[in-house]
Amino acid sequence: MKKTILLLLWISICAQSIFAQFDCSDGRFDNTSYFPAFTLDEGVTYGENVQPTIFNPNNIQTLKMDIYEPDNDTASLRPLIIWAFGGAFVAGSRKSPDIVVLATTFAQSGYVCASIDYRLSTNLILNGNPTNGYRAVFKAMEDMKAAIRFLRKDIIENGNPYRIHPDHIYVGGVSAGAFTALHTAYLDEDSEIPTEIADEVANNGGLEGLSGTPGYSSEVNGVINLCGALGDTTYMQMGDVPLVSMHGTEDETVPYGSDIIDLLNINLPVDGSASIHERGLNLGLNSEFYTWQNAGHTPFVSSPAYMDTTIRFVKDFMLDLVCDFNTVSVVEKSSSAWQLQVNPNPADEGFMVSMSNAPSGTRWTYELLNLNGQVLRQYQSEDSSFYVARENLSAGLYLLSVRSPEEQVVRKVVFR
After folding, report:
1. Is residue 383 part of a domain?
2. Shortest CA distance to 97 belongs to which of 110, 82, 87?
3. What's the 3-state SS for the chain?
4. Whole-number Å distance between alpha carbons of 349 and 328
C-alpha cells in the first residue's frame, strides 16, 4: 500500500521574482555542524566614507568585512547572510562575539556569511537627539548597502569567488544591526526619509549613499531581525521581502512594540518587532516572530540557551526560503502513478489542473492558499482535471494543494 506523502512548501517572494532554491534533502542548512569547519577571509575592504573625528572633520573610514565560508564545500552556489553587530550605533565591531557565533554557525550549516563593520555615531553619547539618531541609522544603512553592492559586483564581474547565489542575499543583525538590516530592506522611497535629514541624505548619495561600488543593486531577499526596530512600519509594503523577528517582552533598550526609544536621550518613536510582525501579517508578507516572555534586550548575547533558541528559530525560517521542497519525494510509488500538471503557470485569468495516470474513482480535494497558509478556495471532485479561475485574486504567488486520500502534492502558482 502506498504511504501517505505530505509535501510542505513554504515560498518567499522578492518584489517581482520567484527564487531559485537549493536541494536540502541531505540536511544542508538544517544541521548546525553539517560542515565541521569554516574558512575565514578576514578584513576584506568593501568601501569607505566620511567619518568625522574631533580633530579631522574630513576623516575617511575604510569599511571592512569578514567572510565566513563552509570548509570543503563543493556547492556551486550558496545563500549569503550579511550580519551587522549591535551597540547602540556607538560601539561594537564585526568581531562582536554574538555575531561571530551566528556567522560561524550558519557558515557550518552551508551559508556564506559576511560580518560587516559600519560607521558608528559616537556623537550620540554627548549629543543624543532625534536628528542624530536618524543620521546614525542612515550611515549604517548606507554602509550595509555598499557591502551588498560590493558582493554583487563580485558575482557579476569578478568570477563570484564566494559562490554566492544572486537571488539569495539576506541581511540580518542584532539590536542596532537589526535596525540597519530592517531599514536596508524596507526604507526604499525618498518620501520615507525623515524631513530632518532629507536634504543631507539627498546631498550624500540619496538612499544608496556614497560608501562604495555604485551602479549595482542593493536589493535583498529577506531580513533577520534580532531585537531591532523600524522608524515606521509604513515603510513596509505589499510584496516586500520576508522577515523573521525575535524580541523580549521586557526589552528596555529597544521597544518590543511601538514606543519611544530613549537610550542616549535619542527620544525617537520606533516600531519594535511585535509591531513589525503585525504589519507584515497585515500586508500578507512571509513574517515569523518569536517572543521571549519576560526577557530583556538581546538575551542570547550572554546565554548559550537563548543563543541555541535563536539559531534554531532563524534556521527553521531560513530553510523555508532557501530549500527546494517543490520536488515530490516518492515513497513506494510506481512509475504509473499520477502526476500533477498546472498550465499555464504563470497565468493571467486562470489555469487548468490535471493529473496524468490518475486512478479512476479517486475523490480529489483542491485547495488554493496564500503564503500565510490561509485557504482561499476549496473544491472536491472526482474529475482528474479542473479549471481554477482567477476571479478577484490579486497578482502574486499562491500555493495549490491537490490531495487524494493517500497523497498530497503542492505546487506554487502565479497570477500575473
Report:
1. yes
2. 87
3. CCCCECCCCCCCEECCEECCCECCCCCCCCCCCCCCCEEEEEEEEEEEEECCCCCCCCCEEEEEEEEEEECCCCCCCEEEEEEECCCCCCCCCCCCHHHHHHHHHHHHCCCEEEEECCCCCHHHCCCCCHHHHHHHHHHHHHHHHHHHHHHHHHHHHCCCCCCEEEEEEEEEEECHHHHHHHHHHHCCCHHHCCHHHHHHHHCCCHHHCCCCCCCCCCCCCCEEEECCEECCHHHCCCCCCCEEEEEECCCCCCCCCEEEECHHHCCEEEEEHHHHHHHHHHCCCCEEEEEECCCCCCHHHCCHHHHHHHHHHHHHHHHHHHECCCCCCCCCCCCCCCEEEEECCCECCEEEEEEECCCCCCCEEEEEECCCCCEEEEEEECCCEEEEECCCCCCEEEEEEEECCCEEEEEEEEEC
4. 27
Alpha carbon of 261 to those of 93, 172, 226, 231: distances in Å? 22, 20, 16, 10
Give whole-number Cα distances, 366 to 159, 241, 399, in Å: 45, 28, 11
Query: What are the angstrom distances between the C-alpha of 174 and each of 115, 247, 254, 274?
Result: 12, 10, 11, 16
Whether residue 124 contacts residue 90, with contact meaning beta carbons closer than 8 Å, is answered with yes
Residue 2 lies in a domain: no
The last residue of one of the domains, among 288, 322, 356, is: 322
221: CATH: 3.40.50.1820
Q: What is the pLDDT of residues 183-242, one digit of tens each?
A: 999 999 999 999 999 999 999 999 999 999 999 999 999 999 999 999 999 999 998 999
- The predicted-structure confidence for 20-41, as pLDDT tens digits, reads as follows 678 777 889 988 889 999 999 9
Q: Which domain holds residue 64?
A: 22-322
Count of residues for the chain? 416
- Which residues face 258 on adjacent strands? 271
